[in-house]
Amino acid sequence: MPEKKKDNRARTWTFIVYPESVPNNWRELLDSYHIPWVESPLHDKDVNPDGTIKKPHWHVILMFDGKKSYEQIKEITDSLNAPVPQKTANPKGLVRYLIHMDNPEKYQYSREDIVCHSGAEVEQYFQLSSASRLQILKEMIIFIKDSRFENYLDFLAYCIENGEDEWLDIAVNHNTLALSKVIDSVYQKNHPKTPQTDYKQTVVAKAKEMARQGTSQRVIADTLGISPATVNRYLKK
Question: Which of 34, 115, 138, 213 is deepest in the core (most CB within 10 A)?
Answer without folding.
Answer: 115
